[in-house]
Design brief:
Elements (H helix, E strand, L loop, with lengths): L1 H24 L22 H5 L6 E5 L2 E2 L5 E5 L5 E3 L6 E3 L6 E3 L8 E4 L5 E2 L5 E4 L1
Parallel strand pairs: 1-3, 2-4, 3-5, 4-6, 5-7, 6-8, 7-9
Length: 132
């Protein structure tokens, strides 16, 4: 009988240690309560140079080589460079790290082209050209 009591005490002791270890290691995962979400649209990405010129962005286009729409576009090049054409409206075109060629729409005043590295070209001087 003494052996059974001793074995029971050993089992209970081991169980208590294991239970204490498991309980002590429990953690509560972090939550996202209180975080806020913000909607990012084309206007939120508009550079100050375009805002200063009074351009109100209505479309956002990301292109390597391509055209905007007849509306007011925010046209973003990728890092390899390319040809960006506003294609009407008052456009804000931002070059990537590569060599970019900007073609603003000469009959619409206010196209803004922003070079961003590389040897960028303002084709026929058809847009207000800035570098950053």
């Amino acid at each position: 009988m003494t052996f059974r009591v001793a074995a029971l005490i050993v089992v209970l002791t081991i169980s208590a240690i294991a239970l204490g270890t498991l309980t002590a290691s429990n953690t509560v995962p972090s939550s996202s309560v209180g975080r806020q979400q913000a909607t990012i649209n084309a206007s939120a990405l508009e550079p100050q140079a375009c805002i200063t010129q009074g351009i109100v962005i209505t479309n956002q286009t990301v292109v390597t080589n391509g055209n905007g729409t007849t509306g007011n576009d925010l046209i973003l090049a990728n890092q390899t460079g390319g040809t960006l054409n506003g294609n009407g409206g008052q456009d804000c075109m931002i070059g990537g790290a590569g060599v970019d060629s900007f073609s603003g729409n000469g009959k619409f005043a206010g196209d803004v082209c922003i070079g961003n590295g590389g040897t960028d070209v303002n084709s026929a001087n058809k847009c207000q050209f800035f570098t950053q």
